Amino acid sequence: MREALRSLNTTELIRRLAASRPGADLTDPATAVKLALKRLAKRYRHLSEEIADADADLRVLIARTAPGLLALPGIGTETAGQLLVTAGDNPDRLVSEASFAHLCAAAPVPASSGRTDRHRLNRGGDRQANRALHTIVLVRMRHDPLTRDYVARRTLEGLKTKDIFRCLKRFVAREVYHHVTSAFSSTPSTSPAT
After folding, report:
1. pLDDT at res. 149
2. pLDDT of residue 105
3. What does the angle CA 138 – CA 140 – CA 146 come to, to the nearest 5 degrees?
4. Pairing between strand 108-110 and 119-121?
5. Long-range CB contacts (< 8 A, 24+ apart) of 116-122?
6. 3-class DSSP assignment, residue 1
7. Could you tell me how far CA 102 lies from the centroid of its own chain?
8. Whether the Cβ atoms of residue 111 and residue 98 lie closer than 8 Å to each other
């Protein structure tokens, strides 16, 4: 059974398993496996639909809060949502682009010895925000021509991939900061009742 299903892509695999007819004899191991796979395929479909619905709701909220954020290359619903959550949890820490980069663990930290002058990424900060920046950089490196040109140019200059990632994460943090702060500055603050 594994050999028959191995070559299928995920969509076709789920479609075929959900439409399968495993049989009624549960004492037969092959029938039991087919029944379990059919149930897993149905669960996969249901959860995929639920995730799509939640993403659509989240997209509406993000578009209302920070409309320009989703228009940036490489930023999707989940990454935008995570960056807004990180910023919203720490509004007192958002005083500059550098503070947002530190909050997202994307600020360069000197890691130089006496003979070399280099930097590394800050290990502190919100790891989920850093993961969101990492995802954005990966998407941009694959699909954004400007980012691909930048990577090619910096590689020719002798930078390693991790250093290029550090520079790109810092750039994305700077770009996102302007959209996040404009979103929070345009939201009217509610004053406590006295």
Report:
1. 95
2. 83
3. 140
4. antiparallel
5. 118/163, 119/163, 119/166, 120/166, 121/166, 121/169
6. coil
7. 18
8. no
Phi, psi of 27 (to 5 degrees): -75, -20
E strands, the chain, are: 108-110, 119-121
Contact 108, 119 (CB under 8 A): yes
Are 25 and 33 contacting, i.e. CB atoms less than 8 angstroms apart?
A: no
CB atoms within 10 A of CB 82: 19
pLDDT digits (tens, 9 = 90+) for 5-18: 888 898 999 998 89
Q: Token pair of 66, please?
A: 């920070």
pLDDT of residue 154: 94
Among residues 133, 124, 25, the alpha carbon closest in space to that of 82 is found at: 133
Question: Over 90: is that where the pLDDT of 135 sits?
Answer: yes
DSSP of 92-119? GG-SSHHHHHHHTT--EEE---SS---E
Partners of 108 in the β-ladder: 121
Which pair of structure tokens corresponds to residue 51? 């995730």
**Is the C-alpha dihedral spanning 87, 179, 142, 147 positive or negative?**
negative
